[in-house]
Amino acid sequence: SKVDARGSFRFFEPEMDARLQARRLFEVDLREAVANEDFEVHYQPIYCLNAERICGFEALLRWNHPVRGRVSPVEFIPVAEELGLIVPLGEWVLRRACEEATRWPDGLKVAVNVSAVQFTSASLVTAVRDALQATNLAGHRLELEITESVLVANPGATTAILHNLKMLGARVSMDDFGTGYSSLSYLRSFPFDKIKIDQSFVRDLCAEDGTEFIVRAVIGLGASLRMTTTAEGVETEAQLAKLRAEGCDEVQGYLFSRPVPAAELPDLIAHWNGAKRA
Ligand code: C2E
Ligand code: CA
Ligand code: CA
Ligand code: CA
């Protein structure tokens, strides 16, 4: 009846308002945080199985809001992309991470995530060049992690951007490998240096559901294509043993360390690589 329809409409409307308003407030907070550079970068070690030492760190953004508390990048990165904030935010992380890496011993590398929106923005290559110049970090110590979604959007432009990044000496990694579309043809067409095997495969590595054969195939593929293979999300000794047996080059996960603030890196490096400091 009329009454029912109006009743449910009235009930629905304020809820929509509340959701919209919450979203607006989130956007306001995020804009303010970007303007104030109110973020931190944490670093997670990447462990080389051949050398048996840490060979680099992945930079991961952290937002700790005074009222909201810790907000996951899974939550705020997509909003930053929508609002066009990912470009300044991404450039900030890049600069921060390069600066931090100059303090590490033994030429340890730094891996920085590049979002699809940032990747296709006109300024990425310039931003990378500027960050390397300003910090004096050697280009080969910088790895840029890119997901397949980047490649789907505009394959032509992607090839040019990847080549320009490589001209600066930077390495490029395919992140979250196996979770997108057409991974295999992308490996053939684009000059990646590294394949990061998504943590969903590592999680099921010991599940006896065939996952280990997929992982074996990806590691073999990486070796044939002369790409480094890195397994993400390694949490158990059993997973590590399997990856080692399959000849995976590098591993990353809570088994070694969670992402930590920069101040904790000297201890972490001393623990895994010996007491030698820069
Ligand atoms: P990602 O690039 O795949 O990063 C790996 C994520 O897995 C990180 O989550 C890391 O903390 C988490 N992780 C590491 N080891 C383990 C493990 O052993 N077990 C489990 N369960 N998780 C593990 P985080 O830091 O929450 O980041 C989530 C995603 O947000 C990243 O996924 C990346 O896509 C995005 N992100 C983070 N920082 C940045 C950034 O600076 N720029 C861009 N564009 N994206 C970022
Ligand atoms: Ca990554
Ligand atoms: Ca990943
Ligand atoms: Ca991921």
Automatic annotation (TrEMBL):
Protein origin, superkingdom? Bacteria
The segment(s) forming the EAL domain are: 23-273
Protein name, as recorded: Deubiquitinase
Q: Which residues of the full protein are shown?
A: 679 to 956 of 958
